[in-house]
Amino acid sequence: MRVAFKPTSTIGKKQNTVTRDKVETEMIARGRHDPCVVPRAVPMVEAMVALVLVDQLMAQYAQCHLFPINPELQEPLHTEQPQNAAAL
Asked: What class of enzyme is it (predicted)?
């Protein structure tokens, strides 16, 4: 399976933070500062794949097992023969 991610966007509003010297300050990010999303990517992809597979499994079960085909209610398929087929 191949997976691609859109780069995460930078939050452009003022945020309260603390420096390494334990001084409270405000931070405003400008430009592109993309964090590494790789550690979170694997669990997110696994969870989304699991959701999609269970959804499809439930749809398949509902279609095939909850509404079984009753042959007595099915109309036969009428296949039309070409008019020249009798001549061949």
From this structure: lyase
